[in-house]
Structure formats: structure tokens, C-alpha cells
Amino acid sequence: MDRTGKLVIQPQFEICRDFEEGIASVGTGSVDGYLKEGFIDSKGQYVVNPIYFSTGPFAEGLARVCTGDGSSQGITIQGCGFVDRNGKLTIETKFQASYDFSDGLAKVDIRGRGEYCEYIDKAGSIVLSKNIGGTCQSFKDGLAPIEVNGKWGYMDKTGNVAIAPQFEGAFQFEEGLAAVRKDARFGFIDKTGNVVIPFKFTGARSFSDGMALVYLDNVPKAGFIDRAGNTVIVPQFDAAESFSEGLAVVRLGSKYGFIDKSGKVVVSPQFSKAMSFNGGLAEVEVDGDGSFKKGNKKGYIDRIGKIVWQPSS
Could you tell me if residue 41 is inside a domain? Predict the structure, then answer.
């Protein structure tokens, strides 16, 4: 479906995911009875045939793919690698697990080396391998969250600790700041580890579109702050999601709608569930249980709340 609601690719897949970098992951049945996944372009043509047991979205020009073996006991993943936008397997499926590329690197797991943090470049070469005595996540803005002995900090791309593990929780850096938790409160630090927004929130999300979703203890409602820590949208919503394409999902009572960056409600809360905008459209559920499960009425709206794809089960 395009932004006007016109059907451009006929229903034919058992699963469909959002387009990323012009390509979407889809799944279809196979002769052995197991769902196989591949990728299609905007015309519905396969750029990667459905031969994989698991796939990830395209990120920085490459997408994660995993081979596997199906049996009565379920699916066993044999190996994971990456394909490019032309469908070429550019990094062999030799890793126990692989994660999306971010900051030019992808985190991988290698059998028998579970204690190591290991990352590959786009040629598939291991460029960082280090035993930090804990766990690690993907890089963003040059730093990766690490956990050592129950405390979180950050590692740089040389494998050196850039911000010592000291937090109860840590998010990836977004827009130069990261949400971290200390003494059961969230605040934000810069890339040198300096606290730039004090630990005063009971909940927080990473910055997106220049604003961060936060919750305050004395007001159990969701609101938004700017990068200086100023309250831009007073906490007033029962729940919310981060801004995407200039709009944010909010919940009042049991109904979901959307606000703009001034806090103005632009799509009144009326849906049983709503997803963030992607490509100018947002998926919504009408009169359901908020699970988006099969059988619930789901449709798409544009930025002013106009239904461009009528809700159907």
C-alpha cells in the first residue's frame, strides 16, 4: 500500500515487515512446512529469495540473515550473516548470532567465545574482540553500552572503557545524549560521562526528534523534555511513545492518538492501539484489545488522522 492507500503489492505473504532503505522482509510457506523469509523491493519483486529462517531489517546497506534446520522440535539456527541490497550474501552465515549494523559495525556472537564482545565491519572482518567480563550491545555515536558485575557503562571502538560501569541501566546514545539510571532514577549523560540532565525521572526514553519521553514520580504521567532538560510538554498522558516524523503516540485512558512537538493533539485519542509514524503513515487498531493480533480490526491513518486504509481484520 502507498501513502494514498492504493494497493501496490497484492496480499500474498504470511508475514510482512516495514520497508527499510527501500526493501522489506517478507515470509512465506515452504515445502518443508516452515516459514522462510526473504526480501522484496517496492514493486513486490524478490531481491532475496525466501530461503532464510530469520531475517532483520536493512541497516546501513546490509541486512541480517540466518540459516537453520527445521524439525519436530522446532527451528535450530545454524548460522547468521548479511546480504546486500542486490541480494548478494556479502558476509557468510558463519556466526552463532548477528545484530544489525550500526555505526559501521555489527555485533556478532561466535560459538565457543560467549565471553567476548566481538564486532565485524562491512567486509565481515572482526575489528574488535575483547573479553570485558560482562555483556555488550551495539555501537551508536561511537560508544556501546556494556554491563560488568551488574553495573552499566560504555566502551569505545578500540575496546577501551570510555565511561566506567556505574549505572543500574543504560540506553544507547541518541543525538549526543544517553538515558541512564542511578538510585532508581533516570537522567542523561553526554559522551564524556558528565551528567547534563539530573537523575529525577522514574522513567525515560532516548532522545528522538530533539525530545525525550520522561515520567515524573510525583506526577505518574508521561511528558517530554528538550536536550537542556527543560519541560517542553507537561506530563499529562497515561502513556506515550517517542517522537517519530514529528508526531508521538499518546494514550489517555484506554484510547490512543497523536500529538505534535508543541503538545497539541493532532489526532484525537480514539484507537485501541497505535504505532508510531513510518513513511507518513501509522498503523492503528480499532475496537480491539490493543494486541494487533489476527482478527482485530487494523488500518492506517495519515498525519491528520485521515484513514487511508480502512480497518479490517
Answer: yes
Tracing cell 541497516 back to the chain, one arrives at 59
Does some domain include residue 56?
Answer: yes
CA–CA dist 203, 242 (Å, integer)? 13
pLDDT tens digits for range 57-78:
999 999 999 998 766 566 678 9
pLDDT at 260: 97
Asked if residues 260 and 251 have their Cβ atoms less than 8 Å apart, the reply is no
In whole angstroms, give the CA distance from residue 308 to residue 306.
Answer: 6
pLDDT score at 9: 77
Helix (H) or strand (E) holding 252: strand 248-252
Place of cell 554491563: 147
22 Rama class: left (phi>0) / alpha (psi -120 to 50) / beta: left
What is the mean predicted confidence (pLDDT) over 272-299? 85
Examine residue 87 and state whether it is found in any structural domain, yes or no. Answer: yes
In this structure, is residue 63 part of a structural domain?
yes
272 with 289: CB under 8 angstroms? Answer: yes
Interval 290-310: pLDDT, tens: 776 667 788 999 999 998 877
The count of other CB atoms within 10 Å of the CB of residue 152 is 24
pLDDT tens track for 19-53 = 889 999 999 876 566 788 999 998 989 999 999 99
**Domain span including residue 73:** 1-100
The C-alpha atoms of residue 79 and residue 83 are separated, in whole angstroms, by: 13
For the chain, how long is the longest CA-to-CA vector?
57
Q: How many domains does the chain have?
A: 1
Specify the pTM.
0.87
C-alpha 50, offset from chain centre: 23
The residue written with cell numbers 497505535 in the block is 274
Contact present, 90 and 100 (Cβ < 8 Å): no
Spatial distance between the Cα atoms of 92 and 209, rounded to a whole number of angstroms: 36
